[in-house]
Amino acid sequence: MENIFLNISAAFWSPDIWLPSNITWEDISPNADNKYANYQHLIFPLLMAFVLLGMRYTLERYWFAPFGRSLNIKNTRSKRAVPNEILEKAYLSKKTKRKQILALAKQLDWSERQVERWLRLRRSQDKPSTLTKFCESCWRCFYYTYSFFYGLVVLWDKPWLWDIKHCYYNYPYHPVTSDIWWYYMISMAFYWALSFSQFFDVRRKDFWQMFIHHIATISLMCFSWVGNLTRIGSLVLLVHDSADIFLEAAKISKYANYQKICDCIFVVFTILWIGTRMGVYPFWIIYSTSIEAPKIVPMFPAYYIFNSLLILLLLLHAFWTYVILQIAYNAFNAGQMEGDIRSNSSDEVSDTSVNNTPINSTANYINKSNSKPKTH
Q1: CA neighbor of 139 nearest in space, from 252, 60, 21
Q2: Cβ contact 30:38 at 8 Å
Q3: Residue ranges of the alpha helices (H) in the chain?
Q4: pLDDT digits (tens, 9 = 90+) for 181-239
Q5: Which of 178, 200, 233, 360 has the highest local Cβ count within 10 Å?
């Protein structure tokens, strides 16, 4: 069994798959002279994730929450369902079909309307409060702002920011400087932290989609780290962070009931999204990885996989851009952004009906990608 495992591992990590021809892992192994990416360092983001979780908890409790309360953002809901053991069991079963609602109404001598109302109120209790969502958006906005500007400072003096062909010159002999090391490690730690926090945050209906997205993002970042593709990976990180700042800022404004500010920020977000995700990303990064890179670097199997994932991400961007433009069109006709800018908790509930506004649906799409969808 051990021999089988070793053979599979050797085949998977074959340099013929991961590296250009005539290059071995020994050629790019980290040493005192050349600080190449060290795969053993991928354990650090796991440890750093707990530091970020502690930082998030501290900021939310002692900074974001007091700030939110100062803006009169509520931490509780005004209406709660009256305790009812029978209906509670039905609610916990997560399956309240039409026939069951009729049976419950008959059993309790209630009207069907009363049962439905109780279930709506009960579901509403499990949703995060506005203050909780406000704090979460503040944390994300704080991180994305840091990440974008730190990335900009880190890359400002790097030749590949100004001439992307430097991502391929002399590949794979690309040492990782300490600033790029921190850029990568903290970014991976953030996504590890998101993966962990999902299990104790308020559970949302897109729980597993978001969890898979976070793990896929971490996997792609690890892929680029192991394959010494950190230069192009750092550019992808930088391009994707800028628009996310304004998405979270728009949500913060919405939760604080600053509707006009929310509308203005969303306009900025839309322009940035289209400019970066459908402009810079395809015509700068994808063009270079698909057209320019093969002219400079001998192609190898892992590179085709990496580039295919980047192209797949572009297709997702195109879909999300279409949805965002729908939001902008509907908002223009309505005169404002209606509804919660991100309805991502389980079942949006009101006393009359679900307010399934376009802004809700699109923000869900953006966050499932993660807004962040980052492929590295």
Answers
A1: 60
A2: yes
A3: 2-12, 15-18, 44-59, 65-70, 85-92, 98-108, 112-125, 130-156, 159-162, 178-197, 207-226, 230-255, 259-275, 287, 293-296, 301-334, 358-369
A4: 999 999 999 999 988 888 877 666 667 767 777 787 788 889 899 989 999 999 999 99
A5: 233
CB atoms within 10 A of CB 370: 18
201: exposed, middle or buried (Cβ count in 10 Å: 0-12, 13-18, 19+): middle
Report angle CA 72, 77, 82 to the nearest 5 degrees. 155
**Token pair for 375:** 């492929």
Output the DSSP codes for 19-68.
S-TT--GGGG---SS-----GGGGGHHHHHHHHHHHHHHHHIIIIIHHHH
Which amino acid, residue 306? F
- Which of 222, 200, 249, 245 has its CA nearest to residue 306? 222
Q: 24: which 2 tokens?
A: 């071995």
**Cβ atoms < 10 Å from Cβ of 79:** 10
Pick from 155, 170, 345, 134: nearest CA to 249: 134
Q: From residue 316, give the alpha-carbon distance in Å to each of 123, 219, 285, 309.
A: 31, 18, 16, 11
Tokens of 74: 């509520």
What are 8's two structure tokens?
A: 């599979």
CA 307/CA 298 separation, integer angstroms: 14
